[in-house]
Amino acid sequence: MSPKITVELLRQLRQAMKNCKYFSEPIQAYIVPSGDAHQSEYIAPCDCRREFICGFNGSAGTAIVTEQHAAMWTDGRYFLQASQQMDNNWTLMKMGLKETPTQEDWLISVLPENSKVGVDPWIIAADQWTNMSKALTSAGHSLVTVQDNLIDVVWEERPSRPSTPLITLGHEYTGLSWQDKITALRAKMTERKITWFVATALDEIAWLFNLRGSDIEYNPVFFAYAIVGFNTIRLFVDLKRLADPAVRAHLQLDSPSKPELNIQTFPYESVYTELQAICAALGPKDKIWICDKASCALTQVIPKAHRSPIPYTPLCLAKAVKNATEIQGMKMAHIKDAVALCELFAWLEKEIPKGTVTEISAADKAEELRSQQKDFVGLSFPTISSVGPNGAIIHYRPLPETNRTLSMNEVYLIDSGAQYTDGTTDVTRTMHFGTPSAFEKECFTYVLKGHIAVSAAVFPNGTKGHLLDSFARAALWESGLDYLHGTGHGVGCFLNVHEGPCGISYKTFADEPLEAGMIVSDEPGYYEDGSFGIRLENVVLVVPAKTKHNYRNRGSLTFEPLTLVPIQVKMMNTELLTQKERDWVNEYHRRCREVVGAELEKQGRKEALAWLMRETQPIALQ
Amino acid sequence: MSPKITVELLRQLRQAMKNCKYFSEPIQAYIVPSGDAHQSEYIAPCDCRREFICGFNGSAGTAIVTEQHAAMWTDGRYFLQASQQMDNNWTLMKMGLKETPTQEDWLISVLPENSKVGVDPWIIAADQWTNMSKALTSAGHSLVTVQDNLIDVVWEERPSRPSTPLITLGHEYTGLSWQDKITALRAKMTERKITWFVATALDEIAWLFNLRGSDIEYNPVFFAYAIVGFNTIRLFVDLKRLADPAVRAHLQLDSPSKPELNIQTFPYESVYTELQAICAALGPKDKIWICDKASCALTQVIPKAHRSPIPYTPLCLAKAVKNATEIQGMKMAHIKDAVALCELFAWLEKEIPKGTVTEISAADKAEELRSQQKDFVGLSFPTISSVGPNGAIIHYRPLPETNRTLSMNEVYLIDSGAQYTDGTTDVTRTMHFGTPSAFEKECFTYVLKGHIAVSAAVFPNGTKGHLLDSFARAALWESGLDYLHGTGHGVGCFLNVHEGPCGISYKTFADEPLEAGMIVSDEPGYYEDGSFGIRLENVVLVVPAKTKHNYRNRGSLTFEPLTLVPIQVKMMNTELLTQKERDWVNEYHRRCREVVGAELEKQGRKEALAWLMRETQPIALQ
C-alpha cells in the first residue's frame, strides 16, 4: 500500500482557505469530517472528502489542515492502515492514546491568535460543532461555517450523488407497516409534547418507510430526509425515484388511506427551505425533535427556543429493538450465511495446500458462495480477508498490492457479512490450516474466553452494554494483553451493519440499556503487530434469561448467538478453558450441527456438511 | 425510627418563598441540596439543612419544595432509611430507578408556567447549577439565586459554625512538605497556563497545608478556602485558629522561607471579596482554575472569560496517589484496625450467647477497642452495626429505637472505620454466630466471588474504575441478584473516608484512571429487604502487576488488600467457589495470620490471636 501524494492538493486547499470568494475573511484551519450530510458511517464516493484529501479510506477519521500542518485523527482499528495510506505531509493522531491531543487542543496549540477555523456545516454534526466551537472560542479563536465545501472546490471529477431504484419491503419482512411506525412515532411525540420530528439518518428513514435503496455501498439506504408532524409527513428524495408504481403504491402516494397518512414528497435539496418554512409558522410552544448528531446546517435552521435536540431519536431506539418477524428473518439470514461459510472453509482446506488462494480470491469466493443463497442482496461491509501480519491491521481490506497468499503457516482472519432481504450478517472467524504456534493458540484462547464471557453473561434488565465490555477483556488483561477497539455494535435488520443506540464498548457515550430483541455483535480480538490478528465475532440476540432468583422483579437478560459457524478447535488451548467454557463451546457446536447441518443437508452441500460435522466434534475433558 | 413531622416547617418555608424580603419576586420552588459551601459529603450540624427540612439524615439527598409538593431524591443506599425518616408530606424519589424523574423533569412537570426556582448559590455546585438552569430555562422557567438561605430563615436555634483547634502533620506522616505541594501545584499551573487556583474542597486544603481539624465529625478537616497564585498563597480561615504557635511555625507565618511561600491569612468569610479583588486585577489572558463542583456563588465571581473550570483539581489527583510514606502509614493503620476488629469478634463470640450485646453496644465496643490503638483520632464515619433486617438498610446507623440484639440466629453486618494519625480505615465484615441458612451462605458466597474478582483483577494502566464494576456483580447477576450501590470509593490518608477522583462504580462520571498508589475500597454486597444484609469490604492499594505479556508496554495493575481481617468461612458455601477463589481466600488468610498475628502477639492480645488463628485455617479442596 503506497501513500497518496498530497503535496499539490494541500497547496490548492490552502489557497482556497485564503480565497475570499468563499468567505469574508480567510480561515487559518479547515476541518474535514468523515461523514456525509446524514452523518453516515459508510459514505457514497461523492462524499469521500476526507479520503480524497489525505488518502486514508477507513470508516472513521477527521482531517484538519492549517496553513502549516495537516493532521488526521482516527482510532485504534486504523492506526496501521492510516500510517500506510498517508504521506508525510500528514501527522497521524492516534485517538485513545494518552499523549494524543484532542482536535481542539491541537488546534489551540498550533493556531496563531484569533484564528478562524472553517467547516462545512452540512457534514459536521451539531453536537460536534457545539463542543468544538466552545473550545475554540474559549481560546480566543472562532469556528465558522463555510457554505462551499473547500474539498469539492479542489476535487476535479468528483462523482455525482447516486440515485438508485427503491425497493419496497412487505409485512413478511418488516412485521410492522410504515403507517404503524408513523403512528408509534407520533405517540412518542405526544408523550414528550413535541410537534415536529426531523429525520436525517438514512437508516432511520429507510426503516420508517419500509424502503431500501443502494445509494451507499454495503448499506441498503437511499439519500433522503423526512419531517413528520401530526398531520403531515414530508419525504425529501430525488423525485425521479418515486415514479416506480410499486413505490407509489407502497407509500400510498396516489390514494392515501387517511389524510394524516398522506405523504407529501419534495426534492431532496429542498429540506432546508421547507424546514425554514415550518419554523417560520411555529407556535410559541412548538418543539422540534432533531438528533444532536444531525448536521449543524439543518439543526441551526430551527430557532433555539423550538429545538429539542436528542442524543438518539425514537426511530433509532424503535429500530434497535427487533420485532418477532425481524428476529425470524435475522435467524434465517444467519443460517444461510453459515452455509456459505462452511462451504468456504471446506473449500479453503482443500485449496490452500495448492498455494493458489489469496486474500482477495478467498474474499471473492466467500461472496460467490453467499450470492448463491436465497434473497442475497450484497455484502454488508468490505470483507476483511487477512493472512498473518495483515490480520493485525484491524480493518484491513485486501488490495492487489497487499494481497497475501493463504498458507499452512500463517493465521487467517476473515471478517465478513452480507445483506439478505430478511437480515444482515457480520461474522469473524480466525483459523489456521497448518499447525498454529503455542502463542497463537494462547491468544486465541484468551479471545475465546472473552467472547464466551460476554455471550454467556447474565445481567439485569436496564444494564448498559458498556458494563459488559470488561468481561470480554478479563482473560487478556490477566496476561497483560488487550485490544484497542470496542467489543460489539448494534446490527440492523437488512440495514446498516453498524447501528445505535446500543453496543458493548469501554466508551460510554450514546449507550442505551440493552433490552430483549436488540441485536449486537460480540467480537473481542487480539492483534500482534507485524505477526497475526485474532478476532472471534458472533452476532447475538438479547433474550430474557431464567435465573434462580429475581431481585426486585427486575428480570434478567442474556444473549443467544444468531451466528452459527464453528469456532476452530485447533486454535484453542483447551487446557486454558474452564469446564464451563468447554461446555459452552460444545453446546454452541451442537447448535451449529443441528441448525446449519440441517440446512446443508437440505441444500445438498455434502462437502461442507462433512466439514461441519468434523469441526463440531465435542472437545473432551482434559 | 419515626418520621420527622414537617407540616409546620413546610408551611413556614412556603411562606418565606413568597416573602419579598428575600427576592424581588416570589419563587415557586426551593431547592435544598445536601452539601455545605464546600460541597462536603459529611457536613457540620449548622449545614444539615436538608435533614432539618425533611428529616432524612443520610449522606446524599436533595430536597425540593414547591407550593404544592415536597420531594426528596436519594440513591439506593438510602431508600429504606429515607422512607422511614420522612413523613407523608414528602415524596421519596428513588434515584437510579427507570420510573424516577430527574429533579429537572419533575420540576417541569409540576411547576406552573414561567416559574422561578430558588437555590442558595453557596450550597449548589456550579456544574449542577448550569445543568439545572439549562433544563429549567428550556422549559420556560428560571433558576434564581437566593442570597439568604430560606432554611436558615425558618431554622430556630441553628448551631454555629465550628472552629476546632488545628493540628500539624510532620514529614513522617505526609512524606511531602506543604511547600513542595505548593511548588508541584504551581508547576501544573504553568503547564496549563493558569495564573490562579481557587481551592474550595476542605480535604484538599487540609492535604495541601498538611493540617488537620475536627470541624466536621469523622472528617479531619477545617473550614477554609485557599487561593494560590505564582507569588502569593492566601488562606481563608477563622483567624483565631492561627494563634497556636505550632500552627504559626508549621505555616512559617512569621518567617517565610521564601517570598513566594509566604502565606497571607484572611478571615474565612472574606474569600468572596478577596476573589473579587483578584478578578478585578486580572490581565486579559489570565485564567483561574476552579473545580466545577465548587459553589456557584464563588464560581460566578470569576468572569467567564477567565474561568477555567475542571472536573477535579490537581490537588484532588495528587492527593489520591499516595506517596511511600502515606502508603506505609495506611498499612500501619490497617494493622492496628485489624487488631481491634479481631478483638471485637472474639469478644462478640463470647458475649452474644448471653443475649446482652446490641447493635449499639457492639459499635461502642468496636470504638473502645480501636481507641486503644496508637494514634487513634476518632471514627472515620458512623459505625453501621446491624442485625438481621437492619442489615438490609444499606447505610443504617443504629439508634435506640431501632437497636436490635445480636443473636445466634441472625446475620450481623458491621461496616466501620477509624481515623489514625497515620491513616484512615474502612472495613465491612458480615458474620453469623450461629448457623447461617443456605440462602444466606449462597448470597454471601456470590458477594465474596465479586469481592475476589475485583481484588484479584489485573488490568492495563490507564483503566478507569468503572470498567471493573461488573466483575463485582457477575456472580450475583448470574443468579438474578444485584446491589444498588457502587463497588468502591477512593479513601483518604488521615482524611475523608470517601474521596475522588477515582472509584469503582457503574456510574462513570468523574472517574479518573486508576494508577499505582491510589487507594480504593472493594465492597460488593447483597441486601434482602426485611431479612438480612451482606457486604464484604476491604480497602485495597493499586499496585503494578507482573503479567506474562506486556501489550504495547502499557504495564498492568492489580490490587493489594490493606485491610487484613478474616472473612468468615462459616458464611461461605465453599462448593460454589472455584479453586482459584479458594486459593485467594487461603492466601488472604495467610497474610492476616502473618501480619496481624504478629501485631496481636506483640500487643499480648491472646484471645484475639486465638480467634484469628482459628478463623484463618485454610479451606480444603472439596
TrEMBL record, chains A, B:
Protein name per Swiss-Prot or TrEMBL: Xaa-Pro aminopeptidase 1
Entry GO terms, CC: cytoplasm
A single BP term in Gene Ontology: proteolysis
Sequence similarity: Belongs to the peptidase M24B family.
EC number, UniProt record: 3.4.11.9
Top enzyme category: hydrolase
Superkingdom: Eukaryota
Domain Peptidase M24 positions: 329-542
Catalytic activity line of the entry: Release of any N-terminal amino acid, including proline, that is linked to proline, even from a dipeptide or tripeptide
Cofactor dependence: Mn(2+)
Gene3D superfamilies: Creatinase/methionine aminopeptidase superfamily (3.90.230.10), Creatinase/prolidase N-terminal domain (3.40.350.10)
Biological source species: Myripristis murdjan (pinecone soldierfish)
